[in-house]
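User: Fold this; tokens only.

Assistant: Input:
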Amino acid sequence: MAINCNGVSPQSLEWCDGKINLPGIRATVFFIPKRDIVDWPTLPDTFEADMDVMATYAGSFTLAAEKKWQTLHVLVDKSPITSESQGTKPSKTSLVKATFVHPGTEEQATAFCRLASNDDYVYLVQTKPGKYRVIGNDMYQTETNPAQNLGGAATDEMGTTLEVSVTDVSPAPFYTGIIETVNGDINEPVEVNP
């Protein structure tokens, strides 16, 4: 029996000269232990007509009872997100990396470091233009490696740095679903009146 091996055909990657391209993320990162996620949104396995769909989770995260996304304040100019290809065909994946620099080093930041070092967290970051990206997935463990710098001299920097990395099938996928945070739901779809 023959199998159908029609490949995915990409669409053009257009760019308008003069368009502003704002780098970086916003100051609030959301995180949750993976065990508190009951059901995951899905990335499509097949390609239909729009490449945007292939890079975006469909649906929303379903969280365990009384669990919410927590917030992490970061210094945006020191908190880059990157991804790179890894492996060999036909099993290539993306290695997604993030550096989150939090200005605090006190008890709460120290306790977070202690917990995150040995746990599996999922992070949501919002880009400067406002779109959310997911760092973490249901297939691979997310590594969070914290470090603290208490400084020395009066002009030294201090803070907590979290080096986060995870293997994924895509560079940090987009997320358009609801985010149930400790401060209320955000990213709710806007209803358009007919």
